């Protein structure tokens, strides 16, 4: 096995899928010669040529529209949107076209497209470079939304997304692009879309999260001195999320804390909390807690870590839920 960062695991998945299937192509701003702003696609244009790894103009709507047309023509495009804030100009193409074509055509046309997007804060980037918009796209029927938290998951989830017959938004937490390494099989493997992972088993309280906050949750759990057995769930797929895994865990523990970087109001945490209330009401021993970003625009560098759900704030939410 190779010991890879998240960036390297994604690059490996792209390389192997492009080798295995000549329908797979990559397009986006600076993805070719420069290898992307975070160097995720480094070396791919040299290996596969400009026709399969194409640098595009700075026009997100054009990138997305072109990818949709390529997918309709039988290819499996992977458009990269350089930062999550730049999804705005591509919103119409993604939501009103890509997500609807299967229904609009009564199943005769599908859009096997994987939209790669760096997401989230923690790297001191400027405005429009640090948001967490997953709830917006999870609210769009026809789109699948995934977000890995480790190199192993990154490779397996990306391969599943590329092979999926429908559009998938593949959010890449930029804070952990190079934060740590993990053993990643060099052979092909997939991780099913819609299947969560129990990172740490526990009996007393459930923590549900995804993306970069998985690491902060692990840190918070390690720092809690009280004897609390905590089950940590990494959703991996935001939509459709693994309801069975969450419900089974909360029925066992009776307590739940949901952690995400996005603003608290109308975030995915609210949807998950509602599902828990619908399925686990008689099992709950405490109100469901949400530890999330604040209902403001992501602040600049000095206050960025105060906005994000860091370990100390997560630990406080766990202790409050456990003490209720």
Terminal Cα separation, in Å? Answer: 45 Å
SSE run: EHEHEHEHHEHEHEEEEHEEHEHEHH
- What's the CATH H-level homologous superfamily of the largest domain? Thiamin diphosphate (ThDP)-binding fold, Pyr/PP domains
- Biggest β-sheet, characterized? 5 strands, mixed
Q: Report low-confidence residues grouped into runs of 5 or more.
A: none
Strand order of the largest sheet: 9-11-10-13-14
CATH A-level architecture of the largest domain = 3-Layer(aba) Sandwich
Helix content: 25-40%
**What structural class results from the helix and strand content?**
alpha/beta
CATH topology group of the largest domain: Rossmann fold
- Round the mean pLDDT to the nearest integer and report it: 97
The CATH class designation of the largest domain is Alpha Beta
Number of strands: 14
What is the count of structural domains?
A: 2
Shape descriptor reads: globular
Number of helices: 12
Strand content: 15-25%
Q: What Rg is obtained from the alpha carbons, in whole angstroms?
A: 19 Å
């Amino acid at each position: 096995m190779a010991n890879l960062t998240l960036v390297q695991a994604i690059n490996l998945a792209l390389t192997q899928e492009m080798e295995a299937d000549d329908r797979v192509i990559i397009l986006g701003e600076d993805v070719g010669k420069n290898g992307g702003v975070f160097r995720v696609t480094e070396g791919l244009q040299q290996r596969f040529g400009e026709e399969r790894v194409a640098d595009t103009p700075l026009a997100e709507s054009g990138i997305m529209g072109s990818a949709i047309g390529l997918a309709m023509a039988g290819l499996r495009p992977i458009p990269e949107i350089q930062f999550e804030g730049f999804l705005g100009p591509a919103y119409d193409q993604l939501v009103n076209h890509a997500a609807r074509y299967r229904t609009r055509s009564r199943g005769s046309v599908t859009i096997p497209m994987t939209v790669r997007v760096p997401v989230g804060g923690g790297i001191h980037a400027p405005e429009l470079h640090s948001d967490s918009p997953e709830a917006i796209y999870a609210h769009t029927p026809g789109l699948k939304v995934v977000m890995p938290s480790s190199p192993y998951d990154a490779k397996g989830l990306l391969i599943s997304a590329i092979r999926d017959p429908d559009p998938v938004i593949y959010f890449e937490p930029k804070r952990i692009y190079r934060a740590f390494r993990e053993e990643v099989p060099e052979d092909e493997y997939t991780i099913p879309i819609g299947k969560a992972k129990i990172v740490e088993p526990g009996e007393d309280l459930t923590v549900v999260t995804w993306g970069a906050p998985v690491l902060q949750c692990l840190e918070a759990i390690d720092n809690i001195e009280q004897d609390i057995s905590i089950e940590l769930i990494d959703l991996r797929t935001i939509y459709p999320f693994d309801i069975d895994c969450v419900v089974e865990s909360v029925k066992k523990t009776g307590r739940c804390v949901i952690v995400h970087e996005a603003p608290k109001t109308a975030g995915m945490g609210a949807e998950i909390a509602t599902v828990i209330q619908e399925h686990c009401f008689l099992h709950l021993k405490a109100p469901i807690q949400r530890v999330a970003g604040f209902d403001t625009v992501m602040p600049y560098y000095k206050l960025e870590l105060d906005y994000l759900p860091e370990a100390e704030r997560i630990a406080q939410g766990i202790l409050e839920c456990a003490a209720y």
